[in-house]
Each structure stands twice: as C-alpha cells, then as structure tokens.
Amino acid sequence: MSRKNTFIPVALLIVGICGCGDESTNATHTAGEVDIGLITHITGSLRGGGYDVKQGVELAVDIINNEYDLALPMAVTAGLTNINGDTIKLVIRDDQSDGTVAAAQVENLINIDGVVAVIGSYGSAITEPASEAAENLGIPFLCPVSTAHSLGQRNFEWFFRTTPELNVFAENYFHFFADISTWGHDFDSIAILSVNNMWGNQFADVINTLALDNGYTVVADISYEFETGTLDTEVGQLMAAGDVVLMQASYLPGALLSVQTYKAMDYAPIAIVTYGGGFVDGGFVDSLGADTENVLSRGDWALDLAAAKPIINDVNALFNAKFGENMNSNAARAFTGMIVLAEAINRAGSTSPEAIRQALLATDFSEAETIMPWEGVQFDAATHENVLARSIIVQIQGGEYKTVWPSAYASADLVWPYPAW
Hints:
Blueprint: E1 14-15, E2 21-22, E3 33-40, H1 47-65, E4 87-94, H2 99-111, E5 118-120, H3 124-137, E6 141-143, E7 159-161, H4 166-181, E8 189-195, H5 198-213, E9 217-224, H6 232-240, E10 245-249, H7 252-264, E11 271-274, H8 282-288, E12 296-299, H9 311-323, H10 329-348, H11 353-361, E13 365-366, E14 376-377, E15 392-397, E16 400-405
Parallel strand pairs: 3-4, 3-5, 5-6, 6-7, 8-9, 8-10, 10-11, 11-12
Antiparallel strand pairs: 1-2, 12-15, 13-14, 15-16
Helix pairs in contact: 1-10, 2-3, 4-5, 7-8, 10-11
C-alpha cells in the first residue's frame, strides 16, 4: 500500500496552532505517563516518508508500554521501569512538510504539550529547523531518519542522530564499487542527478569529492527543482554524458518522474545507484511496479536481513499486524530511534532534560540489540552521531528490496549492468 495515497480520516487530525494538523493538541499531562513529541509529515509533499516514521515510532511505543517476548531493550517489561512503570504518551504534531511549520510545532510540543523529548522528522530540510527549535529550548531531539551531513555539524548539545549520515552512506558506495570491480564490474564515469535542496546538494557535493578521491570522473552534475513537472531536459543531458553510473538523490515525486522519463526516453545507464529517499518509499514500487526493477539504493535496512537477524521477522510480524503492510527502511530506523530514546529516558530514571541528555551520551547498544545492520548505537561525544551505524546496498528484484552488498548480508546476486528497457 502506498502511504502517499493513504486516506486520513478527518477525525484523526485536529486543527492546532498555526492551522497545523495535530493528533494531539494542548495535551494535558497525566500521572503515570511520560510525554514524548513526534514531529513528522502527516500532510504535504513528504507525507509518505512521514507516515513511515510515524508507524515505526508508534510500534516502538506499543512495545515499550507493554510486555513482548522480544530480545530488544524495553520489550520484555511494561513501561519505564525506572520511572515508576510510567508509560509513554506519544504527542504527534504535523509539520506539513514545511520547515517553518516544523519549528513552530516543536515549540508547541515543548511549551504547550510539555514533552520531555522530541523525535523526528523525515526530510533533512524539515529536521534542521525543527531540531534548532528544540535546541533553543533545551530539550533532547532524537533524529532517526534524516541524513544530511550538516545536521551533525552544528555543535548542538541536544541533537542526537541514530541513523547513518550522508558521509557514511557515500563512503560505502565507493567501498561497494571497489568490491564489485573485483567481480569484473569496472567503470570510469559517474553522473549525478539530485533535487535542489539541502539534502540533494550535500549529496552531490560529497559524491563529487569522493569520486575524485577514488579515481572516477564526474561527467555530469545536474540538479532539478522539487516542484518540477518534467525532467526531459535533465535526462537529455544524462544521455549526452555517455556510459555512466548514475547516482541520484530524489524524494518520491522526483523518483517517480525520473524513472518514468528514463523509460519514455529509453535511457539506461550502466547502473542507477540512488540515495534512498523516494526510491525506498513504499509508494515507489507500488506506483511503478516492474519499471523499478534493478534500481540500486543505499540501504538502511531490508526485510531479507532476517536471515542474519531473525528478530526482524518478529518485529515485522507485529508491524504487519498493526498496519497491514511490511516494515520498510524508514519505519525500521524510526522504530530503532524510539527504542534508543526510551531506553535512555528509562536509564536516566528521570524526565529532566539534562538527565536524558546525559543518558543519551552514555548509550551503548550492541549489534544484537537492534533490528538494524549496525554494530550498535553509541553517540560521539562531540557530534552526537551514532559511530556504530553502517549501511548496506539493496536492489529491487521481483518487487522487493534485496540486499546485494556486503556479501555477509546478501540475499541475492547483483544484477549489473542495468538492463535496456
């Protein structure tokens, strides 16, 4: 099911301050509950990714508040055992896929709803002002999904990120390229296509740098506007660039439009290697079906990792029962971020923001304590990045995201080069 087209019952959304849709507005704290804010895209152009985040966090809260036979932190006992068994109350506010609204809504979560921490959002350009609002008010902000490198370079005290950031993903692309060159898949030239915003521009910058460092030539570096209705000119430029590996950063609208245009113009590069975003949104395969086959993406997570981590099947079964669909990488990262935040609050034994911040700094999850293909979770003392985060490479095969790299996690053979239309 594509969350891009998910119907939202009117009763679900309450019009709040600034006209923003909220699922809980002017919340009143109840004894026995700890209020945590979720800022995400319920409406607007990025609502598909926003719903992924929402669902992942909601499942985590359900597991934290109840008893589950899962080998994960916070699962086997109910509630926050070090805070009188209090349960977590999730207070959700809609940022409308807009950074200005996001900042205002985080202020509302803190000043009106009284949350002790905030988790979110999806798009990096939205997370940037949202987390700045939390920083200014001295409240912990856990970023589980947004990957722009600059988010961790602001010397913030209250910002923590569990997901790998852009540079981790980008470096892994070139480790992947080095590995597959030993399989006979050599190439010299790279073309870049990216959405013209903070996330896309930072992607293009780091790929340009790493390509040069690794002996590749970037023969085309093309950006497009998020709102564009055509990519004919850009694809024409890609075709003129010759035989290349195309590296692309697009949200769902751009991912859909680009693949439709590639097919219409019969464009088939050596490979299409994407930076997650719309290419791992549930709406991508749902909307284009077989036309998405063989697209590669940086991977945060995939269901087939369950062969190496069986806990994934258990968590996905709960997710499917709750939402009627399988978990995707956005939901998996959001789920993990919420578990990490709750475990820190519980370990702090307090809802004091500073106590929670100190507990986050001391976080130490092992590889076995997450559903992710990471070595664990530990935050760098200065940047608050997860120094144990890692990534994989997935490829759409048979309508599913299959891990193709690294070999230790691979469930399918790499299809290379990209077949002609």
